[in-house]
Amino acid sequence: MVKKLPKVDVVVVGVGWGGGIIASELTKKGLKVVGLERGAERHTEDYYMVHDELRYALRYELFQDLSKETVTFRNNEKIRALPMRQYGSFLMGDGLGGAGVHWNGQTFRFLPYDFEIRSQTVDRYGKNKIPKEMTIQDWGITYDELEPYMDKFEKMAGISGEENPLGGKRSDKYPTGPMKHSPQMDMFEKAAKKLNYHPYTAPSANLSEAYKNPDGIERAACQYCAFCERFGCEYGAKADPVVTVIPVAQKTGNFELRTHSNVRRILHKGGKATGVRYIDTTTDEEIEQPADIVVLTAYVFNNTRLLLLSGIGTPYDSSTGTGVIGKNYAYQVSQGGATGFFKNKKFNNFAGAGALGMEFDDFNGDNFDHSDLKFIHGAGIRLYQSGERPIQNNNIPRGTPTWGKEFKQNSIKYANRTLKIAAQGACMPHQHHFLDLDPTYKDNYGDPLLRMTFDFENQERELAKFMAQKCTEVMKEMGADHIDTMQELGPYNITTYQSTHNTGGVIMGDDSGTSAVNNYSQMWDMDNLFVVGASSFPHNSGFNPTGTLGGLAYRAAEGILKYHKSGGQLA
């Protein structure tokens, strides 16, 4: 029998960055908010003994249990999708703070071009520049409109950085200064400038100095321990929801956090969301939580899946290109780059921080002429020193045997004589890339798993080859004795880690026929249901998504407050 609880103002599904921001902003204004998190509660002290590469980086301590729920995958509709049984391409978080706990902290803003990508591409190159099957669209919001919210996110998180000379205009500087430079970062900066590019210190959620944010949260500076990605931060120096926004919500007395609460359905009647139904995974009790407003703030896949399971919105149909739920799934092109081997230089590659690095965006967005190129958009070109831990890293020149005497000699020789320049490229949506419910495989509650249909296209292959050559030019200028360059981008492979930068499925726009939510993240089909996260991105940029996601979350919080006061579709 389902247990029904008293109604609250707002129920939030998933308490990571999106859910934490929503809870913080709404509770400060007096709304009663329940946050449902299917994983366990976490605190900074849980990470005091976290420097265990085997446990966290390779055995995935902080991630979703794939034996209970996973996604299925296929490259195209002609083949059967199979479940992802072990982690590879991306890492889905689990527990309080979500993926915001185990991220590296790289906190960029998307470019002005991103938000008006279709109109700006057509204006500059004509309609024929966009392939028929490429389903890019403007976001229904401009960079200038979103900029104050991204600034608010950066001030909350204490982002350390310096201005991107080729980025959008800023209303204010970063709240803390850039991180320290290592010798390899200085080498990259010098080489990039000699080639007439515009390098800058990457924006970092790893604090460069002690910081007190506008909510009164104080945090210590980064220790450069190199245990960021796949790890929680025991110092609280890396901004995550657990040490920033969630404590603010809890302090108001208006926020109730319920962990081990796995939401299975959004309840609705007469075109309105009425609450959610979830399982208390500690007791298997089924519980109904009524609410005036429902906010989905789970991961990309879970936001999309919950809407499909709940029968909300029109499922996307790839054969006709109609429908919106599941549309425009995109990933990121993170495989193009160059690895340099140095015979007479040694580096302390074991040290660093998740967002310690340099980047230039001369080939990102539409910052360069694409007239004679077979792709649009581009990539940020970067060198990061995030720390090379011993199990996962063994850099040897291409052509070295993978066993035996020469393998061992080169493994030792180049252990601290290798640098990598990477191109993190944008990914454009295509009509045949989408998310839907798998007709065969189910989770441990009997609900269909989410199915992903995706592959790299000629757009991504051409982009990757172009960027690999640009990376090689910089590496040559840095003086590498031997350089291995990516030759060709192969088919998308879900077993190889690339990035946890999945986007789309519940996309944003200004037309209910081609998008699921408006620019306040409010559902067109259900005005008291908001869906917040990278699921709303109509395409993926050449940047990490969190800074843009954070801005959209703050804007959504503003929209929810407006809706709570006046109701209706927000303009």
Distance between the termini: 41 Å
Helical coverage, percent range: 10-25%
- Counted beta strands: 22
Summarize the biggest pleated sheet.
Answer: 8 strands, mixed
Structural class based on helices, strands and sheet pairing: alpha/beta
Average of per-residue pLDDT values: 96
CATH topology: FAD/NAD(P)-binding domain
Using only CA atoms, what is the Rg?
A: 23 Å
CATH superfamily: FAD/NAD(P)-binding domain
Which architecture per CATH?
Answer: 3-Layer(bba) Sandwich
Q: Could you list the spans in which at least 5 consecutive residues all have pLDDT below 50?
A: none
Structural shape: globular
InterPro entries: FAD/NAD-bd_sf, GMC_OxRdtase_N, GMC_OxRtase_C
Organism: Pullulanibacillus pueri
Protein name: GMC family oxidoreductase
Keywords: FAD, Flavoprotein, Oxidoreductase
What does this structure look like?
The strands form five sheets. Strands 1, 2, 3, 9, 10, 11, 12 and 22 form an eight-stranded mixed β-sheet that branches. The protein is of the alpha/beta class and 571 residues long. Helices cover 23% and strands 20% of the residues. The longest helix has 21 residues, at 546-566. A hairpin with a 5-residue loop joins strand 7 and strand 8. The chain has a single domain, classed as FAD/NAD(P)-binding domain. It has helices at 17-28, 53-58, 99-102, 112-115, 117-125, 143-157, 183-194, 245-252, 300-310, 405-413, 458-477, 546-566; strands at 3-4, 8-13, 33-36, 71-74, 82-83, 200-201, 211-212, 218-219, 255-258, 261-269, 272-280, 285-296, 327-330, 333-341, 357-360, 379-384, 418-425, 434-442, 448-453, 482-485, 503-505, 529-531. The chain is built from twelve helices and 22 strands. Helix 1 runs parallel beside helix 8 (245-252). Pfam families: GMC_oxred_C, GMC_oxred_N. Belongs to the GMC oxidoreductase family. This is GMC family oxidoreductase.
